[in-house]
C-alpha cells in the first residue's frame, strides 16, 4: 500500500518528464526588440514581449501563451497578435491600485500545456527600479531545454538572481544600452549565466531601428568563431546540440510582403 501511494505521488513528475521529450526541436523566431516567438515540438506557441514598432515590419504571429516582462508599451502590445482572445497572458507584475507603489513583482512558477514557466524579479535600471521600474526575467522549460528571456534588464545580476538561472541552454539578452544594460554589461551578465548552448542578443540598434546602440560592443572580446549571423530571423534548438559558447545574430530585417 505504501509503495502504491509513493508511486501515485510521483506520477505528476513522471508525466512532466514524459512531456518534456528531451531532444525534440524547438523553433525560435525573433521579431525585433525583445519580441520572440518560441514553438514547442507539440506546437505550443509562447510569445515574449510583443511590440508594434513599424520599423520591423508587420508579422502575423499567433500565440497560446504571452509572457510580458514589464509594463511598457513596446513590450505589451498583445493587440498585434493574430489570434486575439485565444491566448493566455501572464504578466511579470501585478497592479497595486491602492498603494503608492503602483506595481509589484508577480511570482510565477506554473505549468502551461507542455511548457513550464517561472519568473525571476529584477529591475529596468541599476537603481533598484527608481528610474524605470521593475523587470521580470522569464525562465521557460520546453522540450528538455531551458530558455531565459531577460526582458529589459538594467543591471548585472545578483547571486539571488543568478541561482535560478543555473543550467540555462538559451539566453535572450538585451545588449543595446540606453534603456537596458549595454554591450559590456551584457558580456558580464552572459558570463554570469553561462548558457550551455546559445546566446541570442536582442533589444539593440540596427539599420532599421537606430534608437539603441548596435550589437558591436557586445561582440567585442568574444571567443573566435563563436559568433554567427543567421540568414533569417528563425532557428531551431534542442538538447542534442553539443554544449558550447555560441552567439547567434538573427536577422532584424522587416519581413517582405508577398
Give structural notes.
The chain is of the alpha/beta class and 258 residues long. The protein has a domain at 91-249: Metallo-beta-lactamase, Chain A, CATH 3.60.15. Helix content is 15%, strand content 29%. It contains four helices and 16 strands. It has helices at residues 2-20, 159-162, 183-193, 216-219, and strands spanning 26-30, 36-39, 45-48, 65-68, 88-91, 93-95, 103-105, 109-112, 115-123, 134-142, 145-149, 170-174, 198-202, 227-229, 234-237, 247-249. The strands form four sheets. The chain has a six-stranded mixed β-sheet, with no helix packed on it. Strands 8-9-10-11-12-13 form a six-stranded mixed β-sheet, covered by helices on one side. Strand 6 (93-95) and strand 7 (103-105) form a beta hairpin. The chain starts with a helix and ends in a 9-residue tail after the last strand. Mean pLDDT is 84; it is low at 1-21.
